[in-house]
Amino acid sequence: MTRDRFAPQRGVSMVVVVIVVVVTIILTVTGLLLHARLGHLELVQKNLKKIRDDEQRRADALSLSIREELKPTGLYAGEDPKALPVNTVGEELKKRQEAAFQPVEEKFSAFGESRENLAALEARLNEKGKQGDLYATLQALLPLAASRLLYEKNLNDQLTLQQTIAENHAKALSDMKGPVTQRKIDAIAHLRQQIQEVNRKIDAEDQTFSAKQQELINAKTSADAAIAQENADFYTWERNTKNDIREKQRQLEELRVKEAIKVEVRTAHGHVLRPDVGAKIAFIDIGSRDLVVPGLKLMAAKSGDQGRLVYKAQLEVKKVWPTYAEVSITQILTPDMPVIEGDLIVNPLFHTRRPIVVAFAGVKEPKNVRPAWSVDEASRRIKEIGGEVQAETTPQVDFVILTEPSEQPADMQNFNRAAILGVPYLEAAEVYQFLGD
Question: Is 98 in the same domain as 57?
């Protein structure tokens, strides 16, 4: 019952182990794919870093070129040109030119021009500056416009480079994320399907276990009821057995003080009529209405001392009429006492009104009894002459036939019961002489 109770649990454990193995294999393959993808991403990252370094070098070279181009203007790369208003650009350029270049008279002194010409030129330039000559202003703004153009171009190139790097990075992430994410989703869906299958099997096993558990509970209840009934039957049997033992002990005590009663054959059934000793023929005064049958063995006897019978000859019925029968004298037992008319006829196994009932006790196949008939043979002969044989001694038994005393209690049981019930007994040797040879 303990092995049929834990079999379902072993089946669930095997299913869980199989699922764990499958999950481990899937995770291992996924890890290998991720590792390979990570190597590819590292290679892409190196390439992107190389491209970024190249673009950075180009940006640095561009910034250096811008600074070199702006040196004559007095502006610096990185400053916002929009910070200077248009009406102050001329003054700012003039200040920077005066700081960077020599005075006008020193510049033109090398050519041998007169101071007057230089002064007039200076005055004309100052006047034009004060008047805000459009041409002078536009010419002064050209370097500023050029620096702004170069700045905007540099800024545009940097933004384009950053956009390209971001797009490449996004594309690399998308390329990496797509297959890995799909495989991850597929693996998760597969695992969920397996978990559902395992849960279904667990539910089925639980239902089977519940059914088997209920079946075992019912079987246990039935077994408990059967055990209780068996115990009750055993207690009843034990009580009855104890009562039987007490009864046997009581009977045994009675046997110790009782002795079996031996039968003394004193009852005569009729008389001998017209005996012819020479012809060994005679008649008796009982016939078929008195239960006489052919083959019945009788003894011719006379009454002796104290009422005891003295046997004279053995008779056997040959022919039967309703009120009398013809017999043959088969054996003379006492030669000096011939059979005469009026002799009594006796047979303890015969009765004129009812069958004689007997039971046997002692050895089943005696060796020291003559004739040495077995109990079965003697029973057959008794039944042939109209008697009855019972297996056990009861109050209805007329007497018990003792073959030979036996050491087996079962063989002597009828004899002991006869002593208890007061049923007399006859020894087999005395009875068998009435059954013939």
Answer: yes
Which residue's entry shows tokens 């044989």? 389
Q: How far apart are CA 390 and CA 414, in angstroms?
A: 10
Q: What is the pLDDT of residues 284-327, one digit of tens each?
A: 999 999 989 898 888 999 888 877 888 889 899 999 999 999 99
3-state class (DSSP) for residue 305: helix
Contact 372, 437 (CB under 8 A): no
Provide the residue range defining the domain that includes 436. 354-437
Q: For position 416, which CATH number holds?
A: 3.40.50.10190
Eight-state DSSP code of residue 41:
H
Name the residue with tokens 């090398």. Answer: 110
The per-residue pLDDT for range 146-189, each reduced to its tens digit, is 666 666 777 777 788 778 877 777 776 666 555 556 677 777 88
Same domain membership, residue 271 and residue 392: no
- Answer yes or no: are the C-beta atoms of 310 and 340 closer than 8 Å: no
CA distance 202 to 12: 7
Beta carbons within 10 angstroms of residue 398's beta carbon? 19
Q: Which residues pair with 358 in a beta bridge?
A: 389, 399
Q: What is the DSSP string of 229-296?
A: HHHHHHHHHHHHHHHHHHHHHHHHHHHHH--PPBP------EEEEEEETTTTEEEES--GGGT--TT-
The pair phi, psi for residue 26, each rounded to 5°, is: -60, -45
Does a structural domain hold residue 213?
Answer: no
How many domains, in total, are found in the chain? 3
Q: Are 297 and 381 in contact (CB under 8 A)?
A: no
Shared domain for 7 and 133, answered yes or no, is yes
Task: Assess contact for 327 and 317: CB atoms under 8 A.
Answer: yes
Letter for the amino acid at 363? Answer: V
Question: Which of 315, 349, 383 lies at the terminal end of a domain, its last residue?
Answer: 349
pTM over the 0.85 mark = no
| SS3 state at 85 | coil
